[in-house]
Design goal:
Belongs to the MreC family. This protein is α+β, with helices and mostly antiparallel strands and about 300 residues long. It is about 35% helix and about 25% strand. The chain contains 3 helices and 12 strands.
């Protein structure tokens, strides 16, 4: 090993911070000049480190499951009594559901009902909190050749949680509905009005741009709207709650702070393309008509 004097070591120690500052500045400039290159590099790094994220998170999942099982054992007698009561109720509702299902099939056959298109989806495990350039986002682990595309919709078992924004070979980033960059058109069930659900990096996204004469009602359901063709209509999101007067928010059906399993849906086959109206002129394809012009040879002749 080459001996280094104390003076040189002190000088090198003083240069570390300026060196890191210069490197960070160069990376930022490169990101502005070639954002696609930086994005590809970042996704490659995420794909490489994703197994490490899962390995680090695994012990925490085991500890969480252990304490969850301990709490379950404490309340096992109460849970047993509750399950017996629910089971008795479900047996009664089972026969009602069978009758309604048969009646539904019969009515659809009489009406020649056209079924909804099949929606494809995949189920993925949340590997890490991969906010990246976003404040509220998660990373999910995927298999190579997964077929997921940016813009697809992520749901939990209860409702909407976000959209896919970035795709890697073995991972994807999901922008959550409470992120500051999230803006989603929604329908309010009881008020029958439309609004925008805007994230603000808090637990609950807020409602904006609703009619002033018809404010949201406390507790009413919030569903997605298809304005802008960003989301299909009718996906459950949450319910309205007033944290303070005049400031309604949406409480999601799913806790966005403890996501474990998500489903990513491809709704491209769900879009409805309306036909052109009869007699409608497509201005983009309309050709300019040529007008007759005078023949110079005929000018001056009767």
């Amino acid at each position: 090993m080459i001996p280094i004097s104390i003076q040189i070591k002190q000088a090198l120690a003083k240069l570390i911070l300026p060196f890191l500052f210069v490197m960070a500045s160069l990376i930022m400039l490169l990101g502005q000049a070639k954002p696609k290159l930086i994005e590809d590099i970042r996704l490659k790094v995420i794909d490489f480190l994703l197994p490490a994220y899962v390995l680090v998170e695994r012990p925490f999942d085991i500890v969480h499951g252990f304490f969850l099982n301990v709490n379950t054992v404490k309340n096992i007698s109460q849970e047993k009594k509750k399950l017996e009561e629910e089971n008795a109720q479900l047996k009664g509702w089972y026969h009602v559901a069978i009758g309604l299902a048969e009646e539904n099939v019969e009515l659809k056959n009489q009406l020649h009902w056209i079924p909804d298109p099949t929606i494809s989806y995949i189920t993925a495990h949340v590997a890490a909190d991969g906010s990246g350039i976003y404040h509220k986002a998660v990373l999910v682990m995927l298999q190579p050749g997964h077929g997921v595309h940016a813009g697809e919709i992520a749901l939990s078992g209860f409702g909407l949680i976000g959209r896919v924004t970035e795709i890697g070979d073995r991972s994807a980033r999901i922008l959550l509905i409470n992120d500051l960059a999230s803006r989603i058109p929604v329908n309010l069930m009881s008020s029958h009005v439309q609004a925008i659900m805007a994230g603000d990096n808090s637990l609950y996204p807020k409602l904006i741009f609703y009619p002033e004469d018809k404010p949201p009602t406390e507790g009413e359901k919030v569903l997605t709207d298809n304005k802008g063709n960003a989301f299909p209509t009718g996906i459950p999101v949450g319910f309205v709650h007033y944290l303070e007067p005049g400031h309604p928010v949406v409480v999601p059906y799913t806790s966005l702070e403890s996501l474990r399993i998500v489903r990513i849906f491809d709704f491209k086959n769900y879009d409805i393309i309306p036909p052109d109206a009869p007699g409608r002129v497509n201005l983009a394809k309309k050709k300019m008509k040529t007008r007759p012009v005078a023949n110079p040879e005929l000018l001056g002749h009767d």
